Amino acid sequence: MGSRSARSAANGEARPADAAAGAVMADAMAAGCPRLCRRLEGETARAVLANADTLLFDCDGVLWRGEAAVSGAAAALGKLAAAGKRLCYVTNNSGRTRAAYTEKLRRLGFPPAELRHIFSSAFCAARYLRQALPPGAAAYVLGSPALAAELEAVGIPHLGPGPAALPGPAPADWVQAPLDPAVRAVLVGFDEHFSYAKLCQALRYLLRGGPDCLLVGTNRDHRLPLEGGAGIPGTGCLVKAVETAAQREAFIVGKPNRFMFDCVAGEFRVDPARTIMVGDRLDTDILMGNDCGLTTLLTLTGVTTLDEARGHRDSGCPARHGLVPDYYVDSIADLLPALGE
């Protein structure tokens, strides 16, 4: 005699899990959404992971929160690395160098990572400008020392990081500050010293150079979430200020722009069909993954709730369907059973 579940299947009886999955699929199909936002577990998890060569991980809210690793995340990544998976880290944070990320991964117990596996928005911005600027051209930077360090690493001269003051009490004084003739790009990242003086200088470079002066932003994240539901303005607010003043749209190198994935693909021979994007934000991580043809996995340890993802799935609005992941887990640690814990 076979198991009851086998007999039920043979008799056409739906098991509870099958019925739930069928209801999810029916809801998604009714809404016209190509992705189901299903829990990744059991045989499905084993099959999805077996089919993947590369996993791209967002960091904050996925692997750690602040300075504390998400419970079980390091063990899960250790299992993935032992299984021969390529692990890459893709983050919109422009405030840390790649070396700082490799050190944090080590400190929190994650598998060792080489610099070439870290793709921050600071690194991707430097890579973009290295390709786009003529030799010897400089960038005016509204950003952190880490962003400046990534520019230095690829040989791009820069100026601007740190505090800046207006050169006088009147607007006529503000437009007299000297401009470096070598500047051919304005680069906007997270800048705790962002000020009206810097905004004035950025605008002056853009007006002087016209279309030949590039305007580049690291990301459009509108808010940086903090513990307890607090938040601070994100880089997107600073990018928008410069765009509004210049009446120009910046080229964004970070998620959800596919340029960040192109950087990964340029470093490694990555097959999108065998790549998983793991993240906690729908409008950056999941949207980029979907746009690039990756399998997308939402973790609920960060800023997104399951109700939000399901709301997009069931909305019937095609523009919102790009925000829907293929799968979700409560935590990366939920992958451990599928990895042979």
TrEMBL record:
KW Metal-binding (keyword) present: yes
Highest rank taxon of the organism: Eukaryota
Alphabetical GO biological process terms: glycerol biosynthetic process; glycerophospholipid metabolic process
Cofactor remark from the record: Divalent metal ions. Mg(2+) is the most effective.
InterPro entries assigned to the protein according to its UniProt record, in alphabetical order: HAD-like_sf, HAD-SF_hydro_IIA, HAD_sf, PGP_euk
Gene3D superfamilies linked to this entry: HAD superfamily/HAD-like
Residues where substrate binds: 255
An example Gene Ontology molecular-function term: sn-glycerol 3-phosphatase activity
Assembly and interaction partners: Homodimer.
Protein name: Glycerol-3-phosphate phosphatase
Species in which this protein is naturally found: Hirundo rustica rustica
